[in-house]
Design brief:
The chain is of the alpha/beta class and about 400 residues long. It contains 15 helices and 13 strands.
Length: about 400
């Protein structure tokens, strides 16, 4: 079946955060929204059909996460990532951010140190700060168009006694698909210093230009024993509103600690019927849809990078290997961060993610969501050109 990703789906008036919540954050609702990390494509029909079928039953009472739910996850990660897991390793969470919060509670105490690698997904910061833990930054370093781990700095931070390292794999917002040798070195360093790796792999299915994702926990049994993996179908299949994700933990002791927090501590282990139904439908039927989606996203990313290189050389993009979120550097425009942000909203009429929320290294950078019809991408790029071409060298 050929899927139509060019279709414009009207999302306004559906209580959609990206559109209906835009005025709250940008002061206007007439901007082109390229911020919230969901897609403007239809959620696949095989997911919607499964939800409709479940609604044929008149009772929406309490339910169990079935063996089919767990098997759908384990079969998916085996097919997509060559990662063989036991169904017993799987825990439910209503989202990756709640999972991170539960993990922080399970393995740390107030004032304990947790490493993050900015610029990085901003909830990493507040799941640490809001629970009175201490953030230790190990910033990524830039080598030309590539962001890299700074291993020398990482070892210094590990020596400070960090209990956890929260890893973005693949990386949001810089778009890196970390290579096995990079992940292995990081993981072995964490092992040596008794620091647990919490690997957020929510974007693991969204590989651009044929790149292959490496599951951190799949590198070796020893690394697996020290790694907690967070995944979800939400980014892949545009079903974030169903609030469903999975935590995969081979270490039984770690798993028991997390499950205790999820179940007895904050009671978020139940979820909702439709999240399970949607996940099962996605992972059992989603391979062909995803293949076509990745082709489309790759075209969008490459088109945007070419456009910026040819018509907006004052802006800089980076080696983009994963996710539909393009990280763009506006530093050479000669404007302050506040001036750039104002121009984007008031002149270009674009709602982009402000790079400063991603921490150190985010100033004068903005994140652009390209998971939308190409016509929308084209309109966004034209608006950028009209506003910023006068700053070209």
């Amino acid at each position: 079946m050929k899927y139509n990703f060019d279709e414009i789906v009207e999302r306004r008036g559906t209580d959609c955060l990206k559109y209906d919540g835009m005025a709250k954050f940008y002061g206007s609702d007439d901007n082109l929204p390229m911020w919230v990390a969901d897609m403007d494509f239809r959620t696949p029909d095989f997911i919607l059909d499964a939800l409709k079928k479940r609604l044929e039953h008149p009772v929406l009472g309490y339910f169990n996460h079935t063996e089919r739910f767990r098997q759908a996850i384990s079969s998916w990660v085996l097919r997509r990532h060559n990662w063989r897991i036991d169904n017993d390793w799987i825990l439910f969470s209503p989202g990756v951010v709640p999972a991170l919060a539960a993990i922080v509670l399970a393995f740390t105490e107030p004032h304990d140190k947790i490493i993050v690698q900015p610029p990085v997904y901003h909830p990493f910061f507040y799941v640490i700060e809001n629970q009175n833990r201490k953030i230790i930054e190990n910033p990524l370093k830039l080598d030309g168009e590539n962001y890299l781990f700074d291993f020398e700095d990482l070892e210094m931070k590990l020596k400070e006694g960090a209990k956890l390292l929260i890893l973005s794999n693949p990386h949001n917002p810089v778009g890196r698909c970390w290579k096995p040798e990079e992940l292995r070195k990081l993981s072995e360093m964490c092992l040596a210093y008794n620091c647990i790796v919490v690997s957020d792999e929510i974007h693991s299915d969204l590989m651009i230009n044929g790149n292959r994702h490496t599951v951190t926990a799949n590198l070796s049994p020893e690394i697996a024993c020290n790694t907690i993996t967070c995944m979800a179908p939400s980014k892949t299949f545009n079903m974030a509103g169903l609030s469903t994700s999975e935590i995969i933990v081979s270490n039984e002791g770690y798993r028991e600690k997390i499950n205790h927090v999820l179940t007895d501590g904050i009671h978020i282990h139940c979820g909702n019927i439709f999240g399970d139904v949607g996940l099962i439908a996605a992972y059992e039927n989603g391979d062909e849809w995803l293949a076509q989606l990745l082709d489309y996203l790759t075209e969008n990313v490459n088109y945007a990078k070419r456009f910026i290189k040819e018509k907006l050389p004052v802006l800089k993009t980076f080696n983009h290997e994963a996710t539909y979120l393009l990280w763009v550097d506006f530093s050479d425009c000669g404007l302050t961060h506040a001036e750039l942000a104002k121009k984007l909203v008031c002149e270009a009429h674009l709602a982009l993610n402000d790079g400063s929320i991603f921490g150190r290294g985010g100033a004068k950078h903005f994140r652009i969501n390209l998971a939308c019809p190409k016509s929308t991408v084209t309109e966004a790029l034209i608006r950028l050109e009209k506003t910023f071409s006068k700053y070209n060298p």
